[in-house]
Amino acid sequence: MLGMYTFEAVLDGIGLGLVLAVAATVATVAILRRTHRARVRRFLQALPDSERAAAFAMLREFQQGEAARIIAPLLPPARRELSPAAGPSGSGGEATPAEIPG
């Protein structure tokens, strides 16, 4: 029965099968991530504010891997404290390099 097919035809079939398997795997992983993210979101929303803040602090430790991909969109943006910059030291009347005779 296999004699009816050429080697190239068999390879084409295997290649198509691999492409379809990879596409199905990628779609399945995306669906699972979305499902887990929704479950974590519901859990976090049910927590009191103080416990939610502690949970976010703990979840920020996930920097890599699948857990980070699931958790990252749920975390609020990190707050960064900025201090105002010092004003310029000049009075504004100084000469620019183009104005200095040279």
Question: Whole-number average pLDDT?
Answer: 80
Number of helices: 3
What is the 3D form?
flat
Rounded to an integer in angstroms, the radius of gyration calculated over CA atoms is 29 Å
Helix content: 55-70%
Please describe what this structure looks like.
With 102 residues, the protein is mostly helical. The protein has one domain (2-74). Helix content is 57%, strand content 0%. It has 3 helices and no strands. Helix 1 (7-46) crosses helix 3. It starts with 6 loop residues before the first helix and ends in a 31-residue tail after the last helix.
Outline of this structure?
The protein has helices at 7-46, 49-59, 65-71. The chain is mainly α.
Distinctive features:
single chain, 102 residues, mainly alpha
Outline the fold blueprint.
Elements (H helix, E strand, L loop, with lengths): L6 H40 L2 H11 L5 H7 L31
Helix pairs in contact: 1-3
